[in-house]
Amino acid sequence: MHETYYSLAPIGYLRSPLKDRGAAPNQGREGAPDAWLDVDAVVAEGREGIEVGAELIVITWLHQAGRDILKTHPRNDQTRPLTGVFATRSPDRPNPLGLHRVTVREIAGNRVKVGPIEAIDGTPVVDLKPVLSASADF
Amino acid sequence: MHETYYSLAPIGYLRSPLKDRGAAPNQGREGAPDAWLDVDAVVAEGREGIEVGAELIVITWLHQAGRDILKTHPRNDQTRPLTGVFATRSPDRPNPLGLHRVTVREIAGNRVKVGPIEAIDGTPVVDLKPVLSASADF
């Protein structure tokens, strides 16, 4: 995997009351707060069509993750056997992308309030996609 | 969004009978085939724990996408109004990440057969994650 790289640019950043990894739940539905996504003005046109109440997949870049970790104890539970990171949702993984299913709470200019979301304050967002199905929990 | 970039490395590549974008359905469940994912040996340990029959989210880098496109007609239907790409699943978007919900069909060494998946032959894969809920369709 060393010869080829792709360049990922943030489309915005999350502003959250969660200030560090220790304070963040493992998943949004485990008590996470809402957060504001500040969409960069350069790409803000791309959010036209997103409405309050819509369900989105937010893709983050988990900038504090460890990228050289290939095995982990799921949910940091040392009693669970070491498992390959691709079989877990650990933030520590070669490309630390986070997937967060959220609801759009409010829109104010280039800011979109979404939640619940377990990512910490300052987390870069790299993509937004609509949820395709009402049954979805991905 | 121009000052900061993150570097994304493929963890493997898809080997699919779909050879070009024109041949690919819009979504996997719209008649897409299975494909082999060749996991790079450097990160292959990360797939331990993935079992045949499991449901995964495959995150791809849609390497043929147009990254400067911010609005599109959903599903290439010119009768539908131009919509911001973040409100669509268009592959053309600033960071052309693809999300694909698949089932693991077979595992052979560092190769994992998954499907159905609409990504074309040679598409880089950047992450794999387990589906968290049986109800999922993201």
Describe, in plain words, how this protein is organized in 3D.
Two copies of one chain form a homodimer. With 138 residues, chain A is mainly beta. Helices cover 0% and strands 34% of the residues of chain A. The first copy, chain A, is built from no helices and nine strands. Chain A has strands at 6-8, 12-15, 35-39, 55-61, 71-72, 83-84, 97-108, 111-115, 124-130. Chain A is globular. The interface between A and B is large, with 54 and 54 residues.
Q: Sheet bearing the most strands of chain A, described?
A: 6 strands, antiparallel, barrel
Total strand count of chain A, please?
Answer: 9
Spatial strand order of the main sheet of chain A: 2-3-8-7-4-9
Low-pLDDT runs of 5+ residues of chain A are: none
Mean pLDDT across the residues of chain A is 92
Compact description:
Two copies of one chain form a homodimer. With 138 residues, chain A is an all-beta fold.
List keywords for this structure.
138 residues, mainly beta, 6-stranded antiparallel beta barrel, two-stranded antiparallel sheet, 9 strands, 0% helix
Sequence-ordered SSE layout with sheet pairings:
The structure is a homodimer of 138-residue chains.
Chain A: E1 6-8, E2 12-15, E3 35-39, E4 55-61, E5 71-72, E6 83-84, E7 97-108, E8 111-115, E9 124-130
Antiparallel strand pairs in A: 2-3, 2-9, 3-8, 4-7, 4-9, 5-6, 7-8
